[in-house]
Amino acid sequence: MMRNRKRDPRLQPLRWALRLTQAGMVAERALRAFWPLASVLMITLAAVMLGGLDLLPLGVVWSGAVFVLVASLCALAWGLWHFRWPRQSETLARLDASLPGRPVRALLDSQATGAGDAGSMALWLAHQQRMARAAAAAKPPTPNLRIAAADPFALRYVALLALVMALGFGSLWRVGSLGAMVPGGQAGVVTASWEGWIEPPRYTGLPVLYLNDQQADRLELPEGSRITLRFYGSVGALALKETVSASVAGTVGTATGAAIGSAAGTETGATVEATAPEHAIEVQRNGDLEIRGEGGRSWSVAVLPDKPPQISVTGLPELTEAGALSLPYMAQDDYGVIGGEVRIALDEHALQRRHGLRPDPEPREVITLPLPLPLSGSRQEFSEFLIEDFAGHPWANLPVVFSFTVRDAAGQSTTTAGLGALLVAPRFFDPLAAAVAEQRRDILWSGANAGRIAQVLRAVSHRPASIFREAGSYLQLRGILRRLEGFTQAEQAGPGLSGPPRDEIAAALWALAQSLEEGDIGDALARMQQAKERLSQAMRDGASDEEIAQLMQKLREATQDYMRQLQRQAQRDRQSGAEDGEQQQAGTTLSQQDLQAMMDHIQELMEQGRMAEAEQALEEFQRMMENMRMSQNQQGEGGSQGQQAMEGLGETLREQQGLSDQAFRDLQEQFNPNAQAGQSQSNEGRSGGQGRGQQHEGGTGQGSGQGNTGQNGSGQDGSGQDGSGQDSAGQQGQPGQNGSGGQPGQGGSLADRQQALRDELRRQQEGLPLGDEAGGSQTREALDRAGEAMDQAGEALRQGDLAGAIDRQSDAMEALREGMRALGEALAENQQPGQQPGQGQMSSSGQADPLGRDRNASGQGDERGARIGEGRAHRRAWDLLEELRRRIGEQGRSESERSYIERLLDQF
Question: Exposed, middle or buried, 535 (CB in 10 Å: 0-12/13-18/19+)?
Fold first, then answer.
């Protein structure tokens, strides 16, 4: 029956499914039958691989081996008893059970009745064909490998985990050691073993090496490394020969337990019986290290000598911002620097022995400072700075010799060659303070200078009114002079002033010099003048860049204090009821940007070495700041007709600036039509307000502005109206403050606003309070040029030529500034004929700033005539030119667009 089924052609389509089903059933039954045997074998193998045999006595190991053998046999017998090979019928039943309707069993059935009936036969054949198709789709069922019921304690997983750990952390070579447990197996096993460690000197920071793991035949070890060896096993099985230590050369020692160094006999090549189990060798020279015997090794040892540390000075002494000496240096060592020192000695050979330095100096100890080391990071190679304040030292700004010494952990040290340089320290730029400080240095140099110093101090204090700014400083100097003369008379019989009296006089002179240098001036202008004088003196004396930068910073701070004082004075004047307080503040305060620009220009000249020009600019700066104080006291006529004319022209200039800003934004939007014009801080309205650009996408935009005297209405731009409104103060003929412009490229609204501004300028020209004198004619000529430029700008806006309009608007603004400058000079000549032109301009109208530039009512200076900067219009034109150049260089743009950009570049 079984053989017939195996050859049954109806089962041919199911042969692979049956084979896989049978294999799964074999796996299920084998796992259930032999999992105890597999667990015992995995536990045993894991114990051997993890070295369990080396930790147990031999008797315990043999007992364990017997137990494992018995357990394995029992597990094998139990598995063979329970294992049954699956029969063909079981396989067919398993496969048939996985299909709906059991088609395999139906396929193997025979027709019981109606065998002779043709209809029954046809029906049976159709049934067989349907079952064959269903059976052909059969797939082998998944075997059930779950044996949790047979192993409720999961012992199989414990055994598997132990085997995995053994594979990861154990060694398969330990399995070979099982032969040593067999009687007679020790004959082939090494009877001795060894271990060794290499310990470099602790200061090197290198790790300890395990000698058994060193595969190379050559060892490079730091000098002083310690090699420790341990021999195990039979006496005499292993021997050591080494030629690397300092005390033993070529000595051989056996493993009897003695240290080689303590053995008797050190003859080269001699074998010495040892008495200690360990051998300690300190590597001092190149040589060989050899362990003789079975399993021994040999190495060639090369000693790496510890090189002495290196140090070098990488620059010259400089002054820090805090007034301390800064000297850079670089140090390096094989294993790191641990310390050092800096010695500073007076260089008498480079010293000019004159005046107070002519006598022989009193003995003074060399300056010794600890070498600064990095707080973190490696000290094997680093760069650092020696920073120390020598302002009060007697050798300050005298030639000295710097010597750097560096040490490493091995006790080696290196000293640099002496560096001759000045012991830089902050210098005194106040002449009187410098003279007092020099006398203090001289008295510390030698007590024999006491008499000479008394004469100098008496000469300095002869006419105090022209030298001392404060009576307190003069009285302090006279007190020092009296004490010095008293000490000198008491020490006439001796070599000179010394000891505590000398130190007392030196301390008093130092305090006076610092007081004279720093000053205690309450007036801000005086402090600013003092800072300027110190800076000028430093430039004449050829001071270093650091000293000049520090003095420049002090000048900035003093100038800011002076500006704040002027602002507080202007506020007090307004609170006292001055009618034109706003105008007075505008005339007396200075833009911080202009002030910063002026001082930046001075500092730039100094950095370029153009000291003559820098000193001239510094003189102009001081004169202008003083004129500013004069203008504050003389600005009481702001409501005059001339002042009103200046204010009107200033408003016109500001309105023209706003139109130029809007035209520039429209020109930018031609290249980026989707962008929206943002708010321009420089687009100002008629009364000092700010305009807001329109949104160019919506077709209409609104603009608004707020002035000092009222608010104008806003007009809509999309319909072509100019958006001008009436001023709430009732002024006539003034353009509105609408900051909006027309659509990009059209310029209709901008043209109307430009025309309104031209009409306003014409009205202002008719009301100028000047005759036909030189100043009046110059003013009218400049304003005529401004009017013509405005007409040309309006025409360019109507034609859509925004670039040309910007150029004409820039010309108009320049002409307006020239007209305001000429008007200010004319007003000054009319009001104060006896004044200098520069002072009359400043005091009459307040339209000149301390940089010598005309300024309008908004405080904005001449942007094109000034030496500082090119002006906002030129900066905008430059930015636009750079943008055009960038865009024409982009390869992805079309030819038509590139041609259009080239035409725009031709206009620039």
Answer: buried
Q: Are 305 and 286 in contact (CB under 8 A)?
A: no
Q: Which residues pair with 413 in a beta bridge?
A: 407
Residue 890, CA atoms < 13 Å, CB-side half-sphere:
11
**Tokens standing for 560?**
């800011």
Q: Rounded distance, CA 85 to CA 26, Å? A: 7
Find where tokens 């865009």 sit.
Answer: 887
Give the 3-state DSSP-derived string for 692-734, with helices as H, strands as E and coil as C. Answer: ECCCCCCCCCECCCECCCCECCCCECCCCCCCCCCCCCCCCCC
Contact present, 105 and 14 (Cβ < 8 Å): no
Strands 218-222 and 298-304 come out as parallel
Q: What angle do CA 731, 732, 734 make, to 5 degrees?
A: 90
Query: What are the tokens at 532?
Result: 């300027």
- Token pair, residue 868, equals 């500082």
Query: What are the beta bridge partners of residue 342?
Result: 369, 404
- The whole-angstrom separation of Cα 1 and Cα 371 is 104
Helix, strand, coil shares of the chain as percentages rounded to 5?
50, 15, 35
pLDDT exceeds 50 at position 846:
no
Evaluate if residue 737 carries a pLDDT over 80: no
pLDDT digits (tens, 9 = 90+) for 17-75: 888 888 888 888 888 888 888 888 988 888 888 877 777 777 788 888 888 899 889 98
Tell which residue, 728, 686, 718, has the closest CA to residue 705: 686
Enter the pTM of the model: 0.43
Cβ-Cβ contacts under 8 Å for 425 (sequence gap 6 or more): 319, 323, 325, 389, 390, 391, 393, 396, 397
Q: How many CB atoms lie within 10 A of CB 633?
A: 10
Q: How far is 792 from 33, CA to CA, in rounded Å?
A: 110
Show the 3-state SS of 555-624.
Answer: HHHHHHHHHHHHHHHHHHHHHCCCCCHHHHHHHHCCCHHHHHHHHHHHHHHHHCCCHHHHHHHHHHHHHH
Tell me the three state secondary structure of residue 149: coil
The burial of 718, by beta-carbon neighbours within 10 Å (0-12 exposed, 13-18 middle, 19 or more buried), is given as middle
Distance between CA atoms of residues 174 and 55, nearest Å: 13
In this predicted structure, which of 61-65, 79-83, 472-476 has the lowest mean pLDDT? Answer: 472-476
How far does CA 618 lie from the centroid of its chain?
36
Q: Is 107 helix (H, G, I), strand (E, B) or coil?
A: helix
Question: Which of 501, 475, 480, 504 lies closest to 490 in space, CA to CA?
Answer: 501
Burial (CB < 10 A; 0-12, 13-18, 19+), residue 104, is buried
Q: Check residue 687 and report its DSSP letter.
A: T
Q: Give the mean pLDDT of 796-820.
A: 87
* C-alpha closest to that of 61 among 168, 185, 167, 232: 185
Cα(682)–Cα(29) distance, rounded to whole angstroms? 94
Predicted pLDDT at 877: 66
In angstroms, the CA 897 to CA 892 distance is 10
Amino acid present at 510:
W
Assigned token pair, 839: 């002072």
Amino acid identity for residue 109 in this structure: D
Question: Is 70 exceeded by the pLDDT of residue 366?
Answer: yes
Alpha-carbon separation of residue 734 from 651, 657, 782 (angstroms) = 10, 15, 21
How far CA 859 is from CA of 411, 654, 776, 778, in Å, comes to: 71, 11, 23, 23
For 597-629, what is each residue's pLDDT tens digit? 777 787 777 777 777 777 777 777 776 766 665
The amino acid sitting at 489 is Q
On the CB side of 568, CA atoms within 13 Å amount to 7
Residue with tokens 């069922």: 141
